[in-house]
Amino acid sequence: MTRRIAVSGAASGIGKSLATLLRTQGDDVVGIDLKDVEVCADLSTATGRSEAVERVLERTGGALDAVVACAGISATRPATVAVNFFGVTELLAGLRPALAASRAPRAALVGSIAGTAATVPEVVDACLAHREAEALDAAAAAAARGEGNRIYPSSKAALARWMRGVCLTDDWAAARIPLNAVAPGVVLTPMHAAHAMTEEQRKSVDEAVPMPLGGYAEPEVIARALRWLISAENTHMTGQVMYVDGGAEATLRGRDRF
């Protein structure tokens, strides 16, 4: 059965790989990104998010079977929070009503192993309170005091916590819409192309994200996990962060965290 699925970040990396997998199996995919997709929109702004939701609903007649939020950036600046948290949560919230007519509605997002790292508490708290201006100011302050490397982990930690909370609400659980996340380790996408290229950089990344099973992943590995999460077969898994990270989370947090 053909399903209609919206995928953000569909122009590159994990999102592009997922869109390709879904189309190969016969699904109708509406891609969302800055360019080269069906719906071009900037998810770093509130206006861009609203436009993305409106255009997806126009193209689909207001009906979707699944939504996958893959769009994200890794940078030491406030825009990372705008895209990774608010760009994801507002897109999912805006498209959630379109899932209501589906016989098997599903939703998923891309987290990160970085969500287990040190964060900026002020950024996380402001995100969870849905105060975007405050979150961006807190991220800017963190960058100014030399903690810019904590902005990305903060955005992904806040996103996982948001997902864990809303998945149980009437809008999601009572509506029988599973909502889950995949948390990759190091993935060989354009976002990571500038990292781990020199031996020194690679050593630093390997220390931060040890991946004893298989090493760095291709984007298709993450896409396949997302494809299952939004499949009709996933009837009872919700609120889970699925670490597809070559063993990084188990290595870093140990056997007592599960």
Automatic annotation (TrEMBL):
<dbReference type="Pfam" id="PF13561">
    <property type="entry name" value="adh_short_C2"/>
</dbReference>
<dbReference type="InterPro" id="IPR002347">
    <property type="entry name" value="SDR_fam"/>
</dbReference>
<dbReference type="InterPro" id="IPR020904">
    <property type="entry name" value="Sc_DH/Rdtase_CS"/>
</dbReference>
<keyword id="KW-0560">Oxidoreductase</keyword>
<protein>
    <submittedName>
        <fullName>SDR family oxidoreductase</fullName>
    </submittedName>
</protein>
<comment type="similarity">
    <text>Belongs to the short-chain dehydrogenases/reductases (SDR) family.</text>
</comment>
<dbReference type="InterPro" id="IPR036291">
    <property type="entry name" value="NAD(P)-bd_dom_sf"/>
</dbReference>
